[in-house]
Specification:
Elements: H1 8-31, H2 33-39, H3 44-69, H4 74-92, H5 98-111, H6 117-128, H7 133-162, H8 172-200, H9 205-210, H10 218-225, H11 228-246, H12 250-256, H13 262-286, H14 292-311, H15 320-340, H16 355-366, H17 369-383, H18 387-414
Amino acid sequence: MNPKKAPWYFLLLLILAGESVFILPFVLSRVFRPIVLEAFDLDNFQLGVCFSIYGIVALFSYISGGPLADKFAPRKLIAIALWMTALGGFVYAAFPNFTLLKILYGYWGFTTIFLFWAPMIKATRAWGGSTSQGKAFGFLDGGRGLVGALFATMGVLVFSLFLTSEISQATIHESKTAFKQVILISSVIVILVGILVWLFMKLDPKAEAELKVDKITFSQIRAVLKLPSVWLLMTIILCAYVGYKITDIFSLYAQDVMHYDQVQSAKTGTFLLFIRPIVGIIIGLLADRWQTTALLFVSFVITFSGSLLFAFGLVTASAPALFLISILIVACGVYAARCLYFAVMGKGRIPLELTGTAVGLISLIGFTPDIFAGPVMGFLLDDTKGIAGYQHVFWMLGVFSLIGGVAAFSYYKLYKEK
C-alpha cells in the first residue's frame, strides 16, 4: 500500500488512539506512581502483581488477536477497544480493593491487546508502504509519546487544581479526591477518541481489502515461524520492553532518592514523556535514510550506557543535573528501540498481509515483561530499601540491553542492505 492512499489524519488518529488506550492502565501510574501506591494502599510488589496479571491476559490476547487483525478493518477493532478500556476507568476511579484491582488489570489486558494491538501495528505498516516504514513507526511512537505527555501534563494540572491544600500537607483523602478527577477526565477523553476513530479512520475500500486475509491457515503460521526475523524480533522486543517498563520507576526514584515531593516527582515522569516524541520525530526523519537495523543496534548501546550510570550508584540527590542527563540517555535509547523494532519487519521479509499473525506471534514472547518485569522490580525495590534497590533494577536493565544489542546486531548482519 502506498502512503498516499491513506491521508495524514489516518496516522494522526492512530497516534491518538495508540496512546489513549494505555493512559488508564499505565501512563497514570507511571506519572503518579507514589500517589497510586498511597491511594490504593499498595506496595511496589502488589502494583507489580497487577501489571503481571495484565501481562498474562495480554499474552493470550496477542496470539488470539493477531489473526483477528488480518480479517477485520482496523478502525472498528480499535474504536471498540478504546470504549471498553474507558469503561474500566470508571471502576478505577472508585478505588477498588486489591482483589478488584487485579481483576480490572486483567480486563485491561484483554481490551487493550485483543482488539487493539495488532490492528494498530498493521495499519501503521500499511500507511508506511514500502519506503516509509521508519517514518511511519517513528512518528507513531513519537506521536504516542507526545499524546502521553499531554495527558500527563493535563493530569498534573487537574491534580493540582483539585488539591485543596499544599502538597506537603495534603491528606490521603485529599490526594484521592484529586486523583479521581484525573481518572474520570482521562476516561471521558478515551471515549471521545474512540468516536473519532470510528467516524474518520477510514481507508479506501480497495486498500482495506488488500489488508485482509479471508482465512488464516496453519501453513501460513508455520511459514511465519520459519522466518529468522520473527525469532530475533521476539528477543529484541522482549529486551527493549524491559527497558520501557523500567521507565515506570523514574518518578519514584525522584521521590525516594532525589527527595522530590509528589508534584515534582510527577513532573519528572512528565518530562520523561516529552523526550519520547522528540526521539520519535528524529527517528522518523532519519530511519528511512539510514539503515533501520543499524539504528536499532545503536539504541541498545545507548540504553546500556545509561543503565550503568544508575547501576553504579552515581545518580544521587547531590547530583540533580546528572539525574536529568541519565534519564535523557536511558529514555533516548529505550524510545528509539520502540520506534524501530516493528519498523524493521519489512527488512525481515515478513509479508504485509500476514502482519497481524506475525505481530501476535512475536508479541507472545516479546511482551512477556508485562508479566515478570513489574513483580521483579517491585521485589527488588521492596527487598532492598534506598538507592541500592534501584541499582539492582538498573543492573537488570543493563543485562537485558546487552542481550538485546546482540540480537539487534545479528538482525543487522542477517538483513544488511547490499
